[in-house]
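ASSEMBLY PREDICTION REQUEST
Request ID: AP-0331
Submitted by: J.K., bench scientist
Number of chains: two
Total residues: 890
Priority: normal
Notes: Please return the full assembly, not individual chains.
Input sequences:
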Amino acid sequence: MFNQLVVSGLTIGSIYALIALGFSITFTSTKILNFAHGEMVMLGALLGVTFFSVLQLPYLVAMALIMVLVATIAILFERLVLHPIMSRGGHTHNLIISTLAAAFFISNAAELLWGKDDLYARPPFGNEPIAFLGANFIPQSFLVFAVTILFLFATWFFYEKTMMGRSFRAVAINREAASLMSINVKRVMMLTLGLSGVLAAVSGFAFSPITNANAFIGMPLGVKGFAAALIGGLTSSRGSVAGGFLLGFFEVFCSGYISSGYKDALAFTALLLVLFLKPAGLFVSSRGISE
Amino acid sequence: MGAPGRNKFLYWGFMVCGAAGAILFPSILTNEYYVHLANMVGISIILTLSLNLVFGFAGQISVGHAGFYAIGAYVFSNAVVTWGIPFFLSVLIALLACATVGLLIGLPTLRLKGFYLAMATLAFGVVVFVTASQWREFTGGAMGFLGIPRPTVLGYKLATERSYYYLILFSVVIVFWIIHNLRNSDVGRSMVAVRDSESAAGSLGINATKYKLMAFVFASVFAGLAGALYASLARYVSPNNFTLTLSFVILAMVILGGLGSNLGAVLGGMIMVLLPESTHLLGKFHLMVYSLLLILVVIFAPHGLMGLVHKLAPRTAHILMPRQNHGPAFLQESQAILNAPEREVRSFLEVRTLSKFFGGLTALYDVSFSVAHGSITGIIGPNGAGKTTLFNIITGVFPPSQGKVVFRDDPISGLKTHMISHKGIIRTFQSVNLFPDLTVHENVLIGTHRHYTSGVLEAILRLPSLSRKQALAQQITEEVLDITGLNDVRDQLCRNLPFGKQRIVETARALAARPQLILLDEPAAGLASWEKESLKRTLLRIRDLFGITIILIDHSVHFVTDICQHIIVLDSGQLIAQGSPKEIQESSVVQEAYLGKLV
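STATUS: Completed
Returned structure:
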């Protein structure tokens, strides 16, 4: 039981970590918490159903297509919605409301396109359980974990080791100074949204064979990833990733030992406690948090 | 009769027609379904009005409002069905439960701002929803809660929707009336002040936590009322009545109607029910339409439908929202407050060995001085000298690291901002800190908060004591507007004023607080030279007229030497010189700090 829970925790935790990372990079660069981020995850999952399970495209081709499509949607959202609001003063309330609205818009649109029902997402390596450490696991668990680690590493590499990534970080740290250094801040914001869209799409695509997919998984997954980011510390990408794994384990162990029905309620109660006691997040020092 | 009289006539005409329409409505329409819709509209209106109270007025976003709606519905249902408590007592219990939960959730949550607050309220909504689905003993789980009764009023059972309509109408009117009265009292003004600028509100003695919490608890209670009304109307509730989507739709409707407008909220509540009904085509798309509408409103018409009415038909807007008429002024009483006998004090203001460190940075070090009653003291010093830090410590924005501040023999360091302002110290800010969406008149009126705070009950019931207080506050406001020459812009929104005028409004607002000590942080910065001259005259006048002691910060040595008796010079956090203007002008230390050492 314990080993089983550890692996489940790692699987769910890695998904939350990827989603949380998307929130974190968007927030640090744009100061926006994108409530529609979860819907990008949902789109990743449903597009995966279409491209991989229905059209039977090769796994990597399907993944690449999904990444491009979702990133495009995220960029369009930035151009058509966030950008006009920011250039009109960008009141926080307006940004919260418009990202919420976008979330409901996308979810409703997906419902019309894909219907209300659960859709089967085909796992690329089948559903034959693998015995490991005295427990049985489906191969997808390991795939999810591997994909997550790969993309966490790629994101880290991009931000730390490439010139473009450095300019993204510069914008996150000080927008004005970055703009004086002739970094195109608007472009960075737009691309950051695109990048977070990629992360969301990948997590949705990788995760969907475990739970199947429907048009309504966006909000719960998004809110979870969001919670994970806040628990770990929204302003720190490492903190957010750690928060993702922490929340994954917390949830899996709660449903394992307490009750599976209440697992969402418990996760959010944990979030509320963190917000009340240490709003900057568990892994971030408390200074410098305002909005 | 001039235009105001006719407008008043039109306003009441509008109100009477609306009331008659609402009362006769069920008798005119024969279709039961329309009556049902009307009932749903009423419940939605209560929801939007309550969210508008906490979000529109107090500025605290809530993305989990359906949570309170659910708590009201389930607590009521249990009280009336499971525990067998009489109907209206059950409603009361539901309201109390919502107030309690609102208080417990609001207390920690309202410390958060912006996205964090949105997230916390959203999480609250989800927790309530999950609990409603899981806690079968209390909620019936996903199957729902059955067999909720209708009430009996004066021996008449409201069995039909047609009769129940009047209970809902009555509730809507009561809720509207309470929220309307709150908004038009200093309780509501304080909420708006907190929304627009917490720091400015605090500096005028407004306890931000108290007013945010009050708005939140009231909103929870009203949402709970809507829940109880709905439970009895539908006789059945299930978790699907209280989804995140509902919270979102309520939020959308408040914004669509016009954030901060009660009429807008009513409009939003109507649209919430009628829009999906009116076009069957919308059916599947209705969330998409809502979302798109919302995004368009946020981008192109952030003040919603009521904002459009204001823009396109200002006359209509004026009729729908007439200016408040304040009663006769009680000149003598206001004079009595001004001439209250001064308590004998040994020293007026004393700053003793004050230091402030931020991490490794020393902002102030070992600063001591005293200020005599009725004097004008100037504080000068180069940028980063610690002038504003000094003001921030005196007004309690942060506590000193060492030393203390004694005001009229009471140590005040360590008190909260709003407490210090109640002691009689009022400040202005270096960068203008007005309530931008309120008029000049309202800004100055909020300044009187320190003296005329009304209780909630007073405000809701419009007790005579309230109008007396309002009249006094009004009196002071008029005087201040006169003295500062702001009468000609009194009805303009502060955001539309030129910068110089905004500075004067801020000073006027501080004056309206009738402080004993006023701290002005660069009052002359950015003013034209003729404005500076008139500011000088105003400052001297208020000192002579009201005996208010003034401390002001300025960069310009000339401005300070012209009107101050005593000047304090700060440099790099230390007090390097103090004395009369003449002494300061001749001091070599000061010249060095300003001009650099002569080689």
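REVIEWER COMMENTS: The beta strands of chain A are 130-132, 135-137.
SIGN-OFF: pending second reviewer
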